[in-house]
Amino acid sequence: MKVAVFNGAGRPITIEQVADDPLGPNDLRIEVGRCGICGSDVSMTSGSPFDYTTGMRLGHETAGTVIEVGKAVSRCKVGDAVAVIPRGFCGTCGPCKAGRVIFCETGPMHMGGFGERMVVRESAAFPLPASLSMAEGALVEPIACGRRAMRMARLEPGVNVLVLGGGSMGMAAVFWARQMGAGRIVAATRSPARHETLCAIGADAAVTSEDLAKAFAAPPDVVVEAIGQPGMLHHAVEQVRPGGAVISLGMCTAHDPVLPAFNAFREVSLHFPLSYSPEDFIETIRAFDAALIRPEVMVSEMLPLAALPGLIEEMRGAHAHHKVQIAP
Fold this sequence. Notes:
Elements: E1 2-5, E2 14-17, E3 27-36, H1 39-43, E4 61-69, E5 81-84, H2 94-97, E6 117-121, E7 125-127, H3 134-137, H4 140-152, E8 161-164, H5 168-179, E9 185-189, H6 195-201, E10 205-208, E11 222-225, H7 232-239, E12 245-248, H8 260-266, E13 269-271, H9 278-289, H10 295-298, E14 299-304, H11 308-314, E15 323-327
Parallel strand pairs: 8-9, 8-11, 9-10, 11-12, 12-13, 14-15
Antiparallel strand pairs: 1-2, 3-4, 3-6, 3-15, 4-5, 5-7
């Protein structure tokens, strides 16, 4: 089968021909339908301290169809469409019981969505209703991140939310802030290219960074930093009200200075969500099934696997791509 492989920073990502992985008793083999390109696919192949391991298969926003099941599988069957959490989790260790399944102490990582087929633990596969397309299934993973972020912020109905950034993490934050009853939601971007999309998914207004000062009559209660560039975390703290919450969803991989005294005098709380719980995945699937999210609003392009290496390189600089999905 073909799969995209990371060969180290500064070296091209390659599409390799590899043997199919063996199927364990608790495993599923899926034929990948769609896999979305995440900002981390760019930032974690760029030479940062957080880069993927050389030789690692890439792709984690995955949806596909079950084509083979292990002997002990009981919940999924051949023909099921599934969205995949990129770690097979045990469900019994401390992190799993706390809902932090991405930190499971024994489960394997499930990367390789930029490939034709992959083997995953049954625990990591979440069946999709017949109403959902593969495009929607591959959006479950990034959108679920927004739900986790809003839960960490303890978002309450009526609070005002500012989202800095209009990528998939920004859109996920806007969507779940709206679903959880936020008051005024404003998204701020460097350019107006994504403003229509952000309003379609739940923002009351979308503004450029230059117009940010006019967005709220008073500082917002929650600020989501979804840009991931040095300096943006402190910028988010400057925008939030005293006692408010700042959510770091941009996952900057470079040092981003924060002035503790400035935060302390404002009593700002900082939160750094990484992923999601199974509940977040399930509720995101339900949101798609209820047609609360339209994939055509978010997904700008669907490209073949062969286009991936060049596209990742293009996305390292300024680009006009929105959410791109690969159809292996």
